[in-house]
């Protein structure tokens, strides 16, 4: 097992190098350069001043040298300072990560506890009314723009009913509340963003667990279990579910980039100060160091998500680690 | 061949309904100048944010522009982005997948590692970064959605190539003296296309969703040119006073995307059920 983990970790290194290479190329090979952005506001800036700025950012050096300089600093987690407020990029990111991660983990949890039962029930009662209804739900879920759903729910719960707050993560008077008051306040603010970011995933994963379960139910060992007279519930929960859940773990890992990417949309809509909003703001301001920093960190988080999914898959399924050790 | 596919496809009522919706929408988009009751950018200061009525069936926006007309014109943006973005994705994905699957070995592993790396980027982040640096416009987003969305296609094409290149008819073509290019394009590719068509249909659905999201954030189709996404952005600013600006464009997106998904499902079942058994969509 340790061997498998180590091997899997080593595989991440070239991936991270590739990620930095693409991030660097996207920012540096695209037309338009950072100096132009900074001097845009002051058209009088002389050619000399532009040259000085270029020197300051090392933009006068050849591209590959710039890349290696940037990579060297990246290893020390130094992404430079933001063009917008001269704060350190890494500080800006670390202060935003917890809220985005919290929302994403809560949505993953929500996706899992809602989607798997839907999928399992649909599969065990294939072509029943429940199965048909959930299939309709899945298709609508795939096709609904999440930001539109956010608007509708904001309109309904926030504006019409006035039940839920529609922006930020805490009320203005939060400092005067008790601990439970604060917790409730926080939960009220998060319920819509979490629900919405989970919505598409619920549709996807329930479809997937349905087909995974259908496949398992047709296996010989399920027939054996039934043949030896086990109760249907024992067959489903004890024998089938365990095996059907295996591939679902990996799929949850694959959902991570979608969730992180989606955070741009719902954090902007609900004015949540997370990584998505930071990225949106820095993209609008063409804050190159922050753009590069968030892009790299976001993809590394994805890699870590996939890594954890693979490891837990190997933990529950011995076949994976054995074949991993043999190679 | 096409007759068989059509016979199977037409048995799927939902897929046919989807096709009818899309054809209707496409004709509305093409005929927009003739069927839209008003010009999409005609400002009417006396009728700002007026609710649905007989003269404005879906109401007007904050500049008094007719929502129905803007939505009809907006369908052009979705149609264009859907087809062109997916066209780009299919082109890149097919080339990468064909090269990787056909040549195998080092070419294959380098290309597939590249695919893995591209998949690690939260695609929305990558798109935003490129758009911010280039310049938001409808052509930018078509290209950006294309170059961040080809990876699944390349995996599909690759796996088709891996199995097809071992078949006897390829060996026969080689013996007959056909070159690599001829084998790839004339012999393998045509046989590898059915999953690509299905992926393309689902891809259009995804591209329309992405376009509307980007336009909603102000990074896609730029006003005053209407798109369903940027109408929704003005719906958000007028959330408390004008529900129609938020409800109708969103419904249009939902129905369009749903139709493409239904068509995709229908195509999948009618093209080759065997190939698709294990290919249910992922989360």
Please sum up the structure shown.
The complex is a heterodimer of chains A (327) and B (283). Chain A has 327 residues and is mainly alpha-helical.
Task: Give a structural overview.
- The complex is a heterodimer of chains A (327) and B (283).
- With 327 residues, chain A is mostly helical.
- Helix content of chain A is 78%, strand content 0%.
- With 283 residues, chain B is mainly alpha-helical.
- Chain B has a single domain, classed as MetI-like (MetI-like fold), CATH 1.10.3720.
- Helices cover 73% and strands 0% of the residues of chain B.
- Chains A and B meet through helix 1, helix 6, helix 7, helix 8 and helix 10 of A and helix 5, helix 6, helix 10, helix 11 and helix 12 of B.
List the helices and strands and how they pair.
The complex is a heterodimer of chains A (327) and B (283).
Chain A: H1 2-29, H2 34-40, H3 47-56, H4 63-75, H5 89-124, H6 129-143, H7 146-160, H8 179-217, H9 220-227, H10 232-254, H11 256-269, H12 275-284, H13 288-316, H14 318-326
Helix pairs in contact in A: 1-13, 5-6, 5-8, 5-10, 5-11, 5-13, 6-8, 7-8, 8-10, 8-11, 9-10, 10-13, 11-12, 11-13, 12-13, 13-14
Chain B: H1 2-11, H2 13-30, H3 32-35, H4 67-103, H5 105-120, H6 123-133, H7 138-147, H8 151-164, H9 168-175, H10 180-216, H11 228-237, H12 243-271, H13 273-276
The largest inter-chain interface, given as chain pair and residues per side, is: A-B, 60 and 49 residues
**Number of domain modules of chain B:** 1
Query: What letter string, H or E per element, gives the SSE order of chain A?
Result: HHHHHHHHHHHHHH
The N- and C-terminal alpha carbons of chain B lie at a distance of 33 Å
Structure class of chain B: mainly alpha
- Strand count, sense and closure of the main sheet of chain A? none
Number of distinct beta strands of chain A: 0
Tally of individual helices of chain B: 13
Largest sheet entry of chain B? none
H/I helix tally of chain A: 14
Catalogue the unreliable spans of chain A: none
Structural Rg of chain A: 24 Å
State the share of residues found in helices of chain B, binned by percent.
over 70%
Residue stretches of chain B low in confidence (pLDDT < 50, at least 5 long) are: 275-283
The fold-level CATH name of chain B is MetI-like fold
Strand content of chain A: under 5%
Mean pLDDT of chain B: 89
Oligomeric category:
heterodimer
Mean pLDDT level of chain A: 84
How many individual β-strands of chain B?
0
